[in-house]
Structure of Deoxyribose-phosphate aldolase:
Amino acid sequence: MPVNSHSDPASAGTQEITAETLSYEQVAQMIDHSLLRPELTPAEVLAGCELAERYRVASVCVKPCDVELAAKALRGSSVKVGTVVGFPHGSSATATKVFEAKLAMEQGAVELDMVINIGRLRGGEAEYVLGDIQAVVEVAKRGGALVKVILENAYLSEEQKVLGCQLSEQAGADFVKTSTGFAPSGATLEDLKLMREAVSPHVQIKAAGGVRTLDALLEVMRVGTTRVGATATAAILEEFKARKAGGVRATGEGGLKSGY
Ligand SMILES: O=C[C@H](O)COP(=O)(O)O
């Protein structure tokens, strides 16, 4: 059973997770190669798509304006095209998020990373937050796209993180995700454990923000994470290949730092 199996995401716990026990494919399929930085040019996005294809990762996560470009570049490739909705603050009106989701799917996106309405979650407006996610999930399901709900944990209390996870599951989301990568802190092991416990086994966990070494990726996998958003894709996968080849640590700064 592959570690990153969508049919059984909880299977990650059944296998010892080390570079020695994992295949290249299992590690590469953990990664959504992140191409979200606002300054990225179309040429840099295309180079990122080529890199994603060369390393055979799960997907690219591009800015909404780059979905068509990425979909064209990756046509016929196993690398999926994902994008973001209500990014990075989650504050767009629900109708705007729905429109963004529809347009992205029309243009070729099959994975949608939407940002939860952070302020409404913090304000205790659970019904609003649920409706916001449900509206995006509904159009995504019609178009066959996955939905990952970004909680942006940097701004939330433990209770709010758990509630965000529960509302995401209730709304039918496929994943809950720690962070955008653009807040004061990113993924932490503590948050990943909390999120894994807060949702049912069929809801997957994505870590993003600060997963920049192979050790960090292995650490998040060990607590049940089945996808990471990363910009350091090449470094992580080169390190994996080097370690497999010679048992030598090629690069890296150790494991996951506490949210950066
Ligand atoms: O996917 C989210 C972030 O863009 C990841 O950025 P990072 O890997 O450089 O922390």
Observations:
- Confidence is low (pLDDT under 50) at residues 1-12.
